[in-house]
Automatic annotation (TrEMBL):
SUPFAM superfamilies: Mitochondrial carrier (SSF103506). GO terms for cellular component: mitochondrial outer membrane. The keyword Metal-binding does not apply. Solcar repeats lie at residues 72-158. Gene3D superfamilies: Mitochondrial carrier domain (1.50.40.10). This is Mitochondrial carrier homolog 2. Coiled coil: none annotated. It is found in: Mitochondrion outer membrane. Keywords: Membrane, Mitochondrion, Mitochondrion outer membrane, Repeat, Transmembrane, Transmembrane helix, Transport. It is a multi-pass membrane protein. PROSITE patterns: SOLCAR (PS50920). Belongs to the mitochondrial carrier (TC 2.A.29) family.
Length: 255
């Protein structure tokens, strides 16, 4: 019991610290660009037009909602983290948390609390509404696990010799590298899952003209692939302008 409580407290602390990053990442994933491109420097020091990065985006949110605004959607995420630790449930995290965040786009208050949000989802979409975007997320998790296991097996079998010194440290490092590599490869599944969780849910960020309505997650995948947006939101630093897109100041997104 003590170990479980310790895990819950540690997980909650990490969730609070990482929430502003996730919040901004989700807004970028759905295509919200409140700040126009500006001249910056890339990794090689050359001047280029760039989209606002993590810190500029955070300053914009603080300017509108204050510092507390960076933690919109934290309550359901904490509940999801606690429930997930105990009974392996991610319903709150993948649906209600994301919708609380996306409300920033249209300045809505439809999802204002954990229990009220649960009632809202059930009334509007039924039980299936709690599982919006679940299929691509599960597929991504399974694929990520398979990639990690395969790469770890290859590294441990062919690259690491038991006679080598610091074998344990090397294996731990290889696990971290393979995990990062797997997350990069399966990122499109995370993106599609998050978009489907807010798609056509009654919020401005998930409805036309701001966003397209996708009948299935496969349609969402195809649309993002055709537009070259499968990695949107993957990086919050040195963000490049979308090729062939025009920035719409009134809607704060690219077309």
């Amino acid at each position: 019991m003590a170990d479980t409580c310790g895990q819950v407290l540690l997980g909650s602390g990490l969730t609070v610290l990482s929430h502003p990053l996730m919040y901004i990442k989700v807004l970028v994933q759905v295509g919200h660009e409140p700040l126009p491109p500006s001249i910056g420097r890339n990794l090689f020091g050359r001047q280029v037009y760039q989209l606002p990065g993590l810190f500029a985006y955070a300053k914009h949110i603080i300017k509108i909602d204050g510092k507390a605004g960076l933690f919109n959607g934290l309550a359901p995420r904490l509940c999801a983290g606690t429930i997930g630790t105990l009974v392996h449930s991610r319903v709150l995290q993948v649906v209600i948390t994301l919708r609380c965040m996306v409300q920033f786009i249209g300045r809505e208050t439809k999802y204002s609390g954990v229990f009220d949000s649960i009632v809202t989802v059930y009334k509007n979409e039924g039980v299936l509404g709690f599982f919006a975007g679940l299929i691509p997320r599960l597929l991504g998790d399974v694929l990520s696990l398979w990639i990690c296991n395969m790469l770890a097996h290859l590294v441990n079998t062919y690259a690491i010799d038991d006679s080598m010194s610091h074998t344990g440290e090397i294996k731990n490092c290889s696990q971290a590298v393979t995990g990062f590599f797997a997350s990069m490869l399966t990122y499109p599944f995370v993106l599609v899952s998050n978009l489907m969780a807010v798609n056509n849910c009654g919020l401005a960020g998930g409805l036309p003209p701001y966003a397209s309505i996708y009948p299935t997650w496969v349609d969402c995948w195809r649309h993002l692939s055709l537009e070259g947006n499968m990695s949107r939101g993957n990086s919050l630093f040195f963000r490049k302008l979308p090729v062939g897109k025009t920035y719409a100041t009134d809607q704060k997104r690219f077309f």
